[in-house]
Amino acid sequence: MPQNAIEFCDVQKRYGDKTVVDGLTFHVRAGECFGLLGPNGAGKTTTLKMLLGIAEPDAGTIVLAGESIPARARIARQRVGVVPQFDNLDPDFTVRENLLVFGRYFGLSASKTRAKVEPLLEFARLENKADARVAELSGGMKRRLTLARALINDPDVLVMDEPTTGLDPQARHLIWERLRSLLSRGKTIMLTTHFMEEAERLCDRLCIIEEGRKIAEGAPHALISQEIGCDVIEVYGAAPAALREELSPFAVHTEISGETLFCYVDDPGPVNARLAGRQGLRYLHRPANLEDVFLRLTGREMQE
Amino acid sequence: MDTSSSVRTETGQRRTGKRHGRRIRFAMPSNGSHWIAVWRRNYLVWRKLALASMFGNLADPMIYLFGLGFGLGLMVGHVAGVPYIDFLAAGTVASSVMMSATFEAMYSGFSRMHVQRTWEAIMHTPLTLGDIVIGEIAWAASKAVLSGAAIMVVAGALGYAHFPSMLFALPVIALAGLAFASLAMIVTALAPSYDFFMFYQTLVITPMLLLSGVFFPLDQLPAGVRHAALALPLAHAVELIRPAMLGRPMTAAPLHLAVLLAYAVASFLICSALFSRRMTR
Question: What ipTM describes this predicted complex?
Fold first, then answer.
């Protein structure tokens, strides 16, 4: 395995006159978890399509698992597992059959695939559902089966498009735990996500893109201290504009998003003192997180 | 560099030169055998409901054969020198090949491509879109061979068809199955939803069924209509299958085979370019 599992160099993709990926450059080291973040329509899914050799870039070079993409995508995909954004499990088959049929696509013999099915079902906590139809599974079970299916070829690299979107918190935590166990086994994971908590927990490094361009890259905590670098007090329940006028002298920076006022503060004391005991106000003092970075960089206000 | 030269890439896309500023790409199979995994997937699903599926495929043509064969046969007596039901049996075989290949490639193919996203899942493996397209066409043709052969066996057992001469119809049935499957895949590649298939059924399939010598001899038609019918593939399938089943020599067999082959190859190329545009951008 080369040192970098994935390399994107100055990649560009246009649909008609619209440039959806614009000079994107990043790399994913072998064994790390890398997140691709961005608002809807930022180009995340297109980026993954190009990575897998399904869409052809208009310019730039892509390397996946040591193979040049798209020229050798077929060979690269032999060592890659994919968890797509929308479930595409085979509804005509049972849980077990889904894994058996998928093994064929990788050229695995029936006996070789069969030997892998039990451990994968166990990994996905689906031992008791082996003969259930896909329609009988809950959302979380479907995702875990999709993850198990992506592992049928024992891939070096896992590519996941919003792996926990639409799942309830329990199901999400179970997926995170499973992904961490894969990372501890040395797998490389590249994922896209909307959940900043997910990115903060799982990703060693991440890259935020907007309108197809990279706007930040780094380890989550480095990005937080670099972009925010102080604590945050969120205030809601009052007209935020009036509050902003009152509190901004005591904050490094203030922002309004919807009905919430965000005060970035080095010293929370003065702001807290002014808010204490006010009727109908709720406020929360917390360390800065990745969501603050994301919203700061991509704009607090809704863009749609 | 010469941009008009053909470049074969490992992703199974055959790229040709630029035309009107845009490349036309054809989804091509990655090798000679990968499509079998796709065929096999469809076969495994079919096997679960094989009996019901075969019944559904055969009931319709059998009703036509016996209903028209006996009912209409009473009135018309002999056609082309044989009892009407013997004449109709060959037409029923050919039309059921067309119907099963068409419906499998359109409705079931569309489900797998668009609704179930099965194709997307397969494209994330070492298989390519071209492998999928070939596997789907081969599968639809297999189902067509099954229904055509089953009707032929029934017709043979009841004495409406000539054995062993009818065995010559089998390769024709296979070729016709490929042609009708590929043709229907063009419609699937263009379809935004299931409703779209109705246009192809009413504007192409039904007229072809009525004008291709399935129910009555082609020479009953005015010359202009007859020539138009001969531009369509079903008439050529009938012209090959009927003599085989009636134990008569085939006339102009190379021409009829060539037309079916041309339909299969041209439709494959067109649908593979359309699928490439739809699925890999």
Answer: 0.90
